[in-house]
Amino acid sequence: MTTVGGVSGVALIAALLAGCTGGEAADPSAGAATGSTPGTSQSAQPGEPIVITADDLPAIAALGTAGSQTPQRIVSLATGVGETLVALGVADRVVGRDETSQVPAEAEVVTRAHNVSAERVIALDPDLVLVDARTTPPEALEQIAATGARVVEVPEAWTLTDMAPRTRAVAEAVGVDPAAVIATLPDADSTPVPGAPRVAFLYLRGTSAIYLLGGSGSGADALISAAGGVDAGAEAGLDPFTPLTAEALIALDPDILLVMTGGLESVNGVDGLIALPGVAQTTAGKQRRIIAVDDDVLLSYGPRTGALVDLLRAAVTRSMASGA
Amino acid sequence: MISHVGGGPSPSSTTPASRPDRQRTAIVIVVLALVLIAAAAAALLVGAAETSGVIVTEIRAPRVLLTVIVGAGLGISGALLQGTLRNPLADPGIIGVSASAALGAVVVIALGAAYSPMAGSTWITALGATIGGVAGMALVLWIARAASGRTEVVTLILGGVAVTAFAAAIISVVVAVSDSAGTRSATFWTTGSLALATWPGVWSTLPFLVLAVILAALVARNLDVLALGDRAAWAAGVDVDRTRMLALGGAVLAVSAGVAVVGVIAFVGLVVPHAVRMLIGPRHGGLLIGSALAGALLLLVADTIARTAVSPVELPLGVVTAVIGAPVFVVLLRRTRAAQGGWA
Amino acid sequence: MSTRVEAREVTVRGRLDRASITVTTGEVHALVGPNGSGKSTLLAVLAGDLDPDSGTVLLDGESWSRIGARAAARRRALLAQETPLAFPFTVREVVGWGRLPWRGTDAAADDDIVIGEVIAEHDLGDVLDRPVTSLSGGERARVHLARVLAQRAPVLLLDEADAALDLAGQAHLDAAVRRRRDAGDAIVIVGHDLGRLAALADTATLLSRGRVVGQGSAASTLTAAALTQAYGVPVETSSIDGRRVFWSAG
Fold first, then answer.
1. ipTM reported for the complex, 2 dp
2. Interface-testing mutation among B56, B106, B115, B171, with chain A (most A C-beta atoms within 10 A)
């Protein structure tokens, strides 16, 4: 039934992650178009989106310390692993990162549109390169490995329970004890409570369909569950990032729409979102219940995910309290 | 049928089109219109959501109407282009007009920094698409114009390939550098989708279709005579340059505004006039009306498949039309080549 | 006898040099000359197909530049070597196009009568509803002849219209031309078959390298000496059963 979504799921997730960072290039004036300024999640008015930004999250504490085994020059190409490296206390050893990690800020970005530039990585003379199953192209990784750098593949994280194994793998690669960091990670994934608010994660850009619906395994579904909601796409058994018809969205009838801030800006804010075919006919559209999370925050599973879940839970509760 | 050898002229039987011909044309057109109405009514009643008043008026009605407008435009455009260029393989997609219109729309959307995916459904974007379509048409005709002044089948298609590739490349660049969701994706522009159908889209395309229909009505009879070739048609009293200008203008107007809303939809403009010609003959009066109706019907069927076949997933519409159209194109290509004694 | 079509000192750069010609009612005029001599160019100028760089062309005393395509088609008909018909229109439809110039005029009332006449005259009654594209070459030629004659224009221009015709087709065309002359039309023919032209034409113009090198009655213009000069090869002429024949002795 959902073969189309399934076949292209990987490519779509890549496009989605590319969108995360592309969003930063937005016209500064576009921020105003969302009807809310960053960091004002506590003061959002009814009818305006509840916005969660990176500034709303606590700073990442360095809980580990680099040891004698720690490589001197680390390049992180694994999806969103930067925050974990900071938490492990090796931020000053990271010389390069991919676009999906915003930290450490000093590290040079060595990917473009999610393609690794072997040349730029080799120029950094790394002794450790962290990759995951999504790192492309494989030819570049072979070239990097041929220079003698240690290339280590770490597992991806798309749910809360994925985080501990990944943290452990990263810690092992950099020779740091992960116990302190793992202790801060949220508990295992929660099962949705029957009757909980139904949240649809919509990816709003760069496709031939109007939008892609998050669905099961999108990464957002686990966050929604942890925040006390039900992922409407996962509930309907949809594959991640399914190109949905307007009518199918109406049939799903979510209570709340979860979007990325950049995506919301790209459709000209809440009014633009509701002008899309099908949105105005959902409960979320009628009640204007929209939660926007910064692009680079939403899907980077790491040390701050616990805090993000707490903010999301508050946002879901407040959304449901607003409207009729 | 009626021999006049040795007999006096019999006025009633020598009108340019015999009575049975006209009757057949009228019957086919009426049947097409009725089937289209029935199909539109059926399309209003199917979909992923439960049928209700608001679903019909806000979601399905604009989509069905936009489909009819775009499909009719494609049918008219194909018929006008084939008649004007005396070329059975002419189609707004194949000769690069659609891609150029898409480029025009993308540029207007990007320049206007319209941060909405619905930016295609505005008058200004429709106008930009039309300007792009005119430019693309002029370019491809310039490429295809042989020293003899005739447009040749091969150069026209190759010119279309070149213009389409160029437009697609620029679209990719604009989409990549623009952060506006209005520019959508390069895939959207090349495969087409009616997913963004709303009432504004209907209003932004309808006037262009109406203009195209008026132009088509003005040139229909003269287009018949163009089948003789430019010189003979001119000598027979047809203002060839004026006819061609109006017909090509109509062909661009008929598709461009639609492209701005739904992207490039391939092959409908190619296939439909051929099918209609087989049913009612080549006279443009009937052919243009029939192509408008049949184009609308074909696209309506294709789009209904696109949105319901693998529901809740939306299939790209261009995929559906290409599956139908590409084989027909191959057959026509081979037949045309055979008729012309092969191409080097 | 009144002048129907007239060219005065017409020049088309590189192709025609100050050519003049006058054709009157009931006259068949042949334009003769080697390839590239400018005869088709002169015919195109007479047809209004081509604007001369200088000189004037008058149709019934009126300058060409003031006549639109439709009005022109009411005054002159042009039959050229056939181009393939792009779509399978029927004989009835194609012949009907001959009446297009008269649409909206009083003469449109005669459409059915005129079409009936040309269909009978050119023996097309049996193929009326067949697509022209399915006919034989000879039939197609008759269709187009019927079409241009349906224009009922008093000036008829034939531009190598006989190029692809067999003997029967030529005879049919020549008979039709004579009937139009007898009805008072002015007819200009461009062709290569000197024998047929000499038999058909009352008057002739001989062109060479864009210039008129001979003009007058057909007999006095198409002489062996003049043709030898114009064609650049020895041309000889004789008469068989009162009909002149031409051949090159080169």
1. 0.91
2. B115
pTM of this structure: 0.82
- Chain A residues in contact with B115 by the CB 8 A cut-off are 30, 33, 265-269, 272
Q: Spell out which residues of chain B touch residue C147, defining contact as CB-CB under 8 Å.
A: 236
pLDDT per residue of chain C (250 residues) written in tens, 0 to 9: 588 899 999 999 999 999 999 999 999 999 999 998 999 999 999 998 888 999 999 888 888 776 788 999 999 999 988 778 888 899 999 999 999 999 999 999 999 999 999 999 999 999 999 999 889 888 999 999 999 999 999 999 999 888 888 999 999 999 999 999 999 999 999 988 999 999 999 999 999 999 999 999 999 999 999 999 999 999 999 999 888 999 987 6
Task: Write phi, then psi, for A104 (nearest 5 degrees).
Answer: -70, 135
Of A206, A245, A265, the CB nearest to B312: A245
Could you write out the three-class secondary structure of chain C? Answer: CCEEEEEEEEEECCCEEEEEEEEECCEEEEEECCCCCCHHHHHHHHHCCCCCCEEEEEECCEEHHHCCHHHHHHHEEEEECCCCCCCCCEHHHHHHHHHHHHCCCHHHHHHHHHHHHHHHHCCCHHHCCCEHHHCCHHHHHHHHHHHHHCCCCCEEEEECCCCCCCHHHHHHHHHHHHHHHHCCCEEEEECCCHHHHHHHCCEEEEEECCEEEEEEEHHHHCCHHHHHHHHCCCEEEEEECCEEEEEECC
Q: What would the two tokens of residue B200 be?
A: 């504004």
